[in-house]
Amino acid sequence: MRITVTVNGREYESEVEPRTLLVYYLREHLELKGAHVGCDTTNCGACTVLLNGKPVKSCTVLAVQANGQQVMTVEGLEQDGVLHPVQQSFWEEHGLQCGYCTPGMLMSAYSLLEKKQDLTEEEIRKGISGNICRCTGYVNIVKAIQSAGRQMAEKKQLEQNQSEVIGSGN
Amino acid sequence: MAINQTEHRPMGKSIKRKEDPRFIRGEGRYIDDISLPGMLYMNIVRSPYAHAKIVSIDTTAAMEVPGVHLIITGEDLAKMNLAWMPTLAGDVQMVLATGKVMFQYQEVAVVVAESREVAMDAAQLVAVEYEALPALVDPFRAMQPDAPVLREDREQKNNHIFHWQVGDKDDTEEMFKSAEVVVKQDVRFQRVHPSPLEPCGCIADFNKTTGKLTWYVTSQAPHAHRTVLAMVSGLPEHMIHVISPDIGGGFGNKVPVYPGYVCAIVASLQLGRPVKWIETRTENIASTGFARDYHMTAEIAANKDGIVQALRVKTLADHGAFDAAADPSKFPAGLFNIVTGSYDFKQAFVEVDGVYTNKAPGGVAYRCSFRVTEAAYLIERTMDVLAQKLNIDAADLRFRNFIKKEQFPYPSPLGWTYDSGDYEQTLKLALDKIGYAELRKEQAEKRARGEYMGIGISTFTEIVGAGPSHTFDIMGIKMFDSAEIRVHPTGKAIVRLGVRHQGQGHETTFAQIVAEELGLSAADILVEEGDTDTAPYGLGTYASRSTPTAGGAAALCARRIREKAKKIAAHLLEVSEDDVEWDGSAFNVKGLPGKSVTMDKVALAAYTNLPEGMEPGLEATYYYDPPNLTFPHGAYICVVDIDNGTGAVKVRRFLAVDDCGTVINPMIVEGQIHGGLTEGFGIAFMQDIPYDEDGNCLAPNWMDYLVPTALETPHWETDRTVTPSPHHPIGAKGVGESPNVGSPQAFVNAVVDALSPLGVTHIDMPIYPWKVWEILRKNGVTE
Predict the structure, then answer these.
(1) Mapping DSSP to helix (H, G, I), strand (E, B) and coil, where does residue B245 land?
(2) Are A40 and B17 within 8 A, CB to CB?
(3) pTM score, whole prediction
(4) What share of chain B in percent tops pLDDT 70?
(5) Which of A84, B152, B458, B664 is the most buried (most CB within 10 A)?
(6) Contact A140 B281 (CB under 8 A)
(7) Is residue B535 a contact partner of residue B501, using CB atoms and an 8 Å limit?
């Protein structure tokens, strides 16, 4: 089947078998290897990507279901050579060890933080409960997400202030 | 927050990890990320039976599927003399079944095809006719003289694998006879599985023209795997290139050699094309190296003040269909004889018997330092049973029995010499920090109100760093490890090691060790591991051995570099070598402040301006054979609250105070502890791989075999004491496995403590809520 999918802002047109899973489409057709396969039963979340802005487990979505849709993967987080705050915070706070869960974890964290930056520990733990990490014990992941949230809120505030300054200039 | 890699004198600092930039961008390169031109895919046909005769295998329909290149059965391998392979434990294991299958999900045939999907489709068309045999699931039944013999290939016609005993039996018995108090406890450590997030897999790429085999594999021990492969296949070792790429977690699961690996290699040898095999989660849990499965009985002889005298332990170890445990050769039950723990037992006697059953083969793996987890769990659990019997506080009983600081180096009655420790200090810190006295007060008040709250203590001793060549080998290969350092003209260095990390942060910590020794920064050093063509020989990363072995090698290798550098520095400073001293950052002329030269200048001179007659270059290799093992220890305290209505256990607090000697990177050490505690939590409350009476595996996926998510995982608190190892070059002891070795008993002790007013003395793991609920119901606490 022929599908057209927009991934990280770029449009791809591909021929896929109807049974091709989105995760294998991303990994093997588009060479985007960030999303990983860990469990085959939709438990682990290593394959998490955003489909039209919502986190999905790409091992449980068919590539054809993404036809005409927007997909965002871990490869889309960094913009113009600048790491997204959530990537930077995972690095600073030691929120990863083997790195296998990290792309999926980052996408879940990104999705949470897009909605709300000031998250409690409980909200974060609930928000990432579909992503299993076998190495870190989650404490530093929680810290990293809180830290990223603070940075995003500050940036938002700064942008708001700037637009107010520009606004008042008019 | 972590600090920059450009920091000089980086030892002991939380330097930001060098490996992270690729992982946070999704650019880690794990085994399934590698794709080679012309690559084929392999799928394994597995047995639905735990025990059955193979009547026939018909591959006709599968071979007709377009895109199928090759199907291999056990009979095909038998013709090549490859149907069986040696295990690391000195047993043999079927690669593909011939005659009969011995466990459910056993490898029966493989299909190699153009794509993952075609291989999978065709595998389903391989028609295998079985004749079911009764399955032997209970290890105690398997030990009975009239039990059916599972391994007909062996000369020995029973299911007994080994008997191992350590200690003085007669002396121990004498002490038991005269003891004032004896406690006895049966303790089961259930079958669990390390389940790293990335399953196992490999790509075998045999080049028929050059005769060279390149084998990409998720291996914690690439050099050892190359040697084993050379022995099994007959391929010359120098023509086998093993590359272990980024590994998505190991925890011991990626130490053994699995049948799928051998089949992928055979297929590539036959076809002359790269063959990839990536297992599914079910294949990972149901067929690769499981852990534990020990049935233990411990007895402690003590006086009425709780001073322990002797320990007696009897254990039955269920190894499944083949003894595929990855233990050092002389230790069929690993280092289980650390079971006297942190206490000054006068005498001890331990027996372990290994037995075959119709279950998946393996043993040992899961962050456990060779059966140390079982030993630590057993002694810490039994010490609490003694405390309860004598009505002595659990912390107090431990203080009464600790090996004292001044007793080190301490010879244990089971044959180890503990290097160093200060158990009192560590437990005192833990008790103070958690507010033990107040918690006991709160508990008493709650008990009066019918509420169940518990405090569990674990004061464990680890044994890691295998190991000294006089005692430790695997298949005859001594368990030293190695480092090679090349300092380039501009003062930047490459360090290569015989170990292979899987998330432990070696690229950072080993850079810190070498940077500290050479006066450079971690940013100046590139650490490489996992490529047998470039790295020096070593036995790999598991059992917390990297820092005690390769860490020692790295430090001593750097010092070897520094010796030569000192000579060059003397030449540059135009003084004699005796007048030069190293201050940690530079070479100085004694008594002449300001007259100094740094390592980068020396490095340049090593290639441009040498003393007369000196060999150019600044490189060294060091093979480090440790004189002894290292003995990290810790004091863990867990506080739980029990829901009277449901039996659910809430871990309110968990504090881990660890002593792993010198700390290289506190951030990484803390991260290791968080991760290991989470695994211990999973084992204590969630994880088990049960089999039904027909040998069906009842938890072959992550819906039935539970791994902790962020939601149920407690918030971990940590602290540390530092008792350096007196014999390790930098005083480090290793830490990765301590939290898994130290934590399960803290959880269980806490739950038993909570329920002790109801007369509970022991609960076997995993402590599911229904087990607690049944106790509460039986005692009329709930309906």
Answers:
(1) coil
(2) no
(3) 0.97
(4) 100
(5) B458
(6) no
(7) no
